[in-house]
Amino acid sequence: MTSETELNYYEELCRLKVQYKALREEYFLVSASSRFHDIEQADFCSDCNGSGYKLYGSTATWRGGIGGQAMTTSVCDKCWGSGSKSKPWPSWREYEALKKKVDK
Ligand SMILES: [Zn+2]
C-alpha cells in the first residue's frame, strides 16, 4: 500500500529529475557557446582554475567567519563564478553588504 506522502514524494522526484535534465542540457549549451569559449587558458582564475567554483574548508564558504566543519563547494571568491582572471563577475560579498545596508 502506497501512502499519499510517498506518492507526493515520488511526484516531486520525477519533477526534479525532468528539471535537472533540462538545466543540465542548458548548462552544456551555455558553457559550450560562451563561458568556457571566452576564457583563454592564460586568463583562468588562479583560485578555481576557471571553473568559477572552489572547495572551502567550512560551510561558511566565501562569507568567512564561523562555519560548520564540512568541506563545501561554493562560488569562487576571486572571480565570483566567471572563471576569468581579467573579467571577474560582481562580488557576492559586496552585494551582501549592500543588501544589508538597503534592508536596514
Ligand atoms: Zn575563480
Explain the overall architecture.
The termini are far apart. It is built from two helices and two strands. 45% of the residues lie in helices and 8% in strands. It is mostly helical and 104 residues long. Strands 1-2 form a two-stranded antiparallel ribbon. The relative contact order is 0.12. The chain has two domains: 31 residues; 65 residues, no CATH class.
Looking at this protein, list some descriptive labels:
single chain, 104 residues, mainly alpha, two-stranded antiparallel ribbon, binds zinc ion
Main sheet specs: 2 strands, antiparallel
Which spans of ≥5 residues are poorly predicted at pLDDT below 50? Answer: none
Number of strands: 2
User: Span from first to last CA?
Assistant: 52 Å
Note the overall shape.
Answer: extended
Bound molecules: zinc ion
What number of structural domains do the residues give? 2
Order of helices and strands: HEEH
- The proportion of strand residues reads 5-15%
User: What is the tally of helical segments?
Assistant: 2
